[in-house]
Amino acid sequence: MDVTAVDRSAVNGASALHRAAPRSKLVAVALLICAVVVATDPLALAGVTLALLGAAGAVRLPLRQMLPLALYPALFAVIFALAAAPGPVTAALIVLKAVTAALGVVVLMFTTPYPQVFAPIQRVTPTIVGDALLMTYRSLFILAEKSADLMRAVRLRAGVSARQPLRSAQATTRALGGLLLYSFDLSQREYDILRIRGYEGGFRVTPQSSTAPAADVAAIVFGSLALALTLAARSLPALAGLTWMTTLAGLALLIAGLLLGRRTR
Length: 265
Hints:
Order of helices and strands: HHHHHHHHHH
Shape: globular
Number of helices: 10
Strand content: under 5%
Number of domains: 2
Structural class: mainly alpha
């Protein structure tokens, strides 16, 4: 996972979704996750997923970097589906639920700076929890830079190449072991520094206000429509044979979003 790429998109992005209030996007993601939980029809959920991809493409989010992150949970979902699903329809539903929920969270993280994601959460969690999340965010970038330096040093000093997989694996293992020890030392040093400076808890982040009210409304409407759609497909048997139209509509929205994103470049 390229944490720096996520942060670059969240901080430097200028789309309408980037300028929406974090609270609105959190509400939209919560509604989307509720839609995923209640979904029982894979075709209806597939339509939601395709529409979400289309929305991301329309605001020019980096789909090539987002999709691998959203597909990670699918690996575990496939294993679970093969072991527990009674049939292919249920298996497809399990995988789609994992991918859709992950995609919603990835869109949130690619459009919202990490501190702003947890600013609303800080108001309902203990102080130490919010502070720990913010310090973890800072440490991830330090460790990412340290890891890149270590791997570069391994390649230069040990002469490791793709033609020597065993030697490369050994050197990488040693580097990761050193990185683990460095992370423990980093944690202790940060704690000591905070104690010396009189830290008693209270890293507060001011929530970002919206500069694109239409994007706030659009995000919440999208989440509400996704929930309404999956609820309708679950509770109305008459729609059971028509959910393929949802998938087709989602595909049309995906194509339209990708075309719109290309035209605005």
